Amino acid sequence: xxxVLTRTxxxxxxRVVALESDxxxxxxxxxxxxxxxxxxxxxxxxxxxxxxxxxxxxxxxTICSEKLFESVGVAAVPWRxxxxxxxxxxxxxxxxxxxxxxxxxxxxxCSSIYRYGRMELNMFISEKEYKILTAKPGEKRxxxxxxxxxxxxxxxxxxxxxxWASFLTNLKSGGLAIPKSTALPNDHLCLVRLTPRxxxxxxxxxxxxxxxxxxxxxxxxxKPSSRIIDKLNSWSLYDACKLLRELEIPxxxxxVSLYPEDYMRLFDALQNSNVFTESWFHDEVLQSVRNIx
Length: 293
Prior knowledge:
By secondary structure, this protein is α/β, with parallel strands linked by helices. It folds into 3 domains: about 1-75, no CATH class; about 75-200, 3-Layer(aba) Sandwich (Rossmann fold); about 210-290, no CATH class. It has 11 helices and 6 strands. The strands form 2 sheets. It has a 4-stranded mixed sheet. Strands 1-2 form a two-stranded parallel sheet. Helix 4 crosses helix 6, helix 6 runs antiparallel to helix 7 and helix 6 (about 145-155) packs across helix 10. InterPro entries: KsgA/Erm, SAM-dependent_MTases_sf. One of its GO terms (cellular component) is mitochondrial matrix. It comes from Nothoprocta ornata. Keywords: Methyltransferase, Mitochondrion, RNA-binding, rRNA processing, S-adenosyl-L-methionine, Transcription, Transcription regulation, Transferase, Transit peptide.
């Protein structure tokens, strides 16, 4: 865009790498880059078209994170190190749900931007999606797989709420072009900080088996009113009742009532069972991964 967010970051004293996907805005940003003596680097690229799932060379504004970070001197750091890069942006509304899924999946498998460490996202997202990411167990209309995965994977902090009127107008009617939402309030864009947890991969969770956790959560919350015991029995798990008793989870508990920590404890327990070694389960996981991608 015209660089409002870029200039705000520059005025704070930050060193900024600005990705611009619209060539019409490049000349002004490149002129600003030349005047700042190294504080700003402008790259023709689109963050939301980063690391496409294709082989071979890509054409800008599509861009690969490996080449991007190499060009700006960002090296990979261990997961438990400090945040190496802070990323700011506005997720396009038409791509919002898809991008939230792609980002969380990249986080769990430490791919794309997360190959370089715990990248901190500071993103404007719709109020509707913010409510989903921060939903509580029992809220059947909004407590979803995406909720659990983001809450397990990241610390979620609301930094600011801005009315839609500050961003969008409908040139034809003069009214506001606000995305419709009937189930949830959607009067604001929310600036949300998503910081990956240092301890995400310190237990049984590894980037090599995280796809199984994603699949587990997606399957359990596909029907929020289903009972967790029925889901476990559908996986032919030996003595599911005993497992739930050990975890102190009621047998008649609905999947929507389980806390994110419960899903992590369930994952840890299932890692020690034989259900994850069954070939059919791996096939299901792989198909789920393909669907997410």
